[in-house]
Design a protein that fits this description.
553 residues; alpha/beta; six-stranded mixed beta sheet; two-stranded parallel sheet; 19 helices; 10 strands; elongated; disordered N terminus; disordered C terminus
């Protein structure tokens, strides 16, 4: 209660402050979902969605207030308009999950019907109060104060959880011996002296552009033959004819994309990060940090390279890179469908809210993804025209399960299941060969090209269970990726026939830059993509060696 001295001005009118709770309830689901899914989103996506929600609520509130004020001329207009806005927000977010029974969902979900229901409820409450039911209904100001307090608490708790996660991630990275090791300079050999004391074979000049094309879930040829009945040898033969080396026995060190790419780009085992993270943690932010700020781009920048990054179509950790000198963007116009697809949290809310009614009128996910990948393949050769030394990284989300295109690279109308692999591989192989030919032709100095699968495929459904360990066949399929390396000027055997992804750049840098990295053991670790830190070692024969504690223990 505000106590006024005689002659003082009236107490400040706080009705408009009470009326801000619709914005709180509109942003709380966004912040809450982000807090429950650390690592799946980028903070800028959360901020943009919250801003859009606030603007939408402000417009809705303004319309409701003007309408109510025109009809009633009452001082309760701000409180009634806020209540109308809150009911509209509830319908927008929760119309899908509501058990409507015999009521037709499309009618309740339609924005026009929803607005009519909201206005009818609010006005009914208002006129009931006016007709002498004050004792049965709380004052509108009381309702507004209660809702404003509730909304404020919910938002503050969710923001606190977000802040706690961010701080915990910073602490984990700071505590990690792995992060400190990766921050140290890459060891170099004395010019002309090899690591064994003999003569160095490193070809230090001329320096060459370097391209790493990460092909997500691209498995080895024998995996495709055994599990899918697909013969991928013609593609490999075409690459060999161009001068690519394809190891006979290449292993992935990790079973999921996050850890595998991070290991590749840091040419280090990432397993030690599990020492500072709970086995039950789903927060892949610390590993995503090591992926984004990786040792490869730091080392090559020290060698005079610029870093060009091709954002992936939808995978959050590779959707942007703040260390890049240039992020390739082939688009000349804004697309709402593409913007939603690139943001996990926007896509989530677009699927569960009233906004889903508009999605059939927009480009499909397959169309968005197919366009993105085709534009990337067309854009990669353009980097070769730049005379500056360039390191380029591209994450292609093909041929990942949930196949998007047919053999002609046209978007599929619906997912074909695992039977769609052959069509997508045919498209991907064609685009890859076309891109490689163009890169070699347009480069004034022959480039280094690394075509790398991050892991094998998943026809044996390795990830159906969060807790079950893979059997031998499942592990063999998942830990056998594709790899092909164009290393001009190098002798045979620079990358041996039997190796693993963690060592690929160690061999490349030792030869071309005279580094002193030496190969690491080809140790493999299995973890479910949802629990990346619950790692289980897998031996060279694809047998499980040991298991870490289950989530939450």
């Amino acid at each position: 209660m505000v106590v006024l001295d005689e002659g003082s001005k009236r107490a400040p009118d706080v009705r408009w402050l009470r009326a801000t709770y619709p914005a709180m309830f509109a942003t709380f689901p966004i912040i809450g979902v982000a807090a429950n899914n650390p690592g799946y989103y980028r903070l800028i996506d959360v901020l943009v969605l919250c801003l859009i929600a606030i603007v939408a609520v402000a417009v809705l509130y303004g319309i409701a207030y003007a309408f109510i004020r025109t009809l009633t001329r009452s001082d309760s207009g701000p409180d009634v308009a806020a209540l109308v806005s809150l009911v509209a927000i509830a319908l927008f977010y929760f119309y899908g999950p509501l058990p409507l029974g015999a009521v037709k969902g499309w009618a309740v979900a339609h924005p026009v019907y929803s607005l009519a229901i909201v206005v009818a409820i609010a006005m009914g409450c208002y006129f009931a109060k006016k007709r002498g039911m004050q004792r049965k209904l709380p004052a509108m100001s009381t309702v507004s104060r209660f809702l404003a307090l509730t909304g404020g608490i919910l938002v503050c708790v969710s923001i606190g959880r977000l802040a706690y996660d961010e701080i915990s991630d910073i602490v984990a990275i700071h505590r990690s011996e792995l992060a400190r090791d990766l921050a140290r300079p890459v060891p170099m050999r004395v010019a002309g002296v090899g690591s064994d004391g003999g003569s160095s074979g490193g070809a230090l000049t001329p320096k060459r552009d370097i391209y790493i094309i990460l092909l997500d879930e691209y498995a080895a040829t024998d995996v495709y033959r055994e599990r899918y009945g697909y013969d991928n040898r013609p593609f490999e033969d075409s690459l060999r004819a161009l001068g690519f080396h394809i190891p006979r026995d290449l292993r992935s060190n990790y079973a999921n994309t996050l850890l595998s790419i991070t290991s590749l780009l840091n040419f280090a085992q990432i397993q030690p990060i599990a020492n500072v993270m709970s086995p039950g943690s789903k927060d892949f932010t610390p590993v995503a940090y090591l992926m984004e700020h990786n040792r490869t781009e730091r080392f090559l920048k020290s060698q005079g390279y610029r870093f060009v990054f091709f954002p992936s179509a939808w995978y959050s950790p590779t959707r942007a890179n703040s260390d890049a000198d240039e992020e390739y963007d082939p688009y000349k116009h804004f697309s709402l469908a593409r913007a939603m697809r690139r943001s996990w949290i926007a896509q989530y809310f677009a699927g569960i809210t009233m906004f889903s009614k508009l999605r059939p009128r927009m480009a499909t996910e397959n169309e968005v993804d197919a366009e993105h990948e085709m534009r990337d393949f067309a854009g990669i050769p353009s980097i070769a025209a730049d005379p500056r030394l360039t390191f380029t990284f591209v994450h292609v989300l093909m041929p990942h399960l949930g196949y998007k295109v047919d053999s002609t690279c046209a978007p599929l109308v619906r997912s074909p299941g695992i039977t769609g692999l052959s069509g997508e591989l045919h498209c991907l192989n064609y685009q890859t060969l076309k891109m490689v030919h163009a890169l070699i032709a347009k480069s004034s100095v022959q480039p280094i090209i690394i075509l790398q699968g991050d892991h094998g495929s998943q026809s044996l459904k390795q990830f159906v269970s969060y807790t079950a360990l893979p059997n031998t066949d499942q592990a063999r399929e998942r830990f056998r990726p594709f790899g092909a390396y164009y290393l001009p000027g190098s002798p045979a055997g620079v990358i041996p026939d039997s190796t693993s992804i963690v060592n690929v750049l160690r061999y490349v840098f030792d030869y071309y830059f005279n580094t002193d990295l030496k190969p690491l053991p080809n140790t493999m670790y299995y973890s479910h993509w949802m629990y990346p830190y619950r790692m289980t070692e897998v031996d060279a024969n694809f047998h499980v060696v040991r298991q870490r504690a289950a989530p939450g223990k």
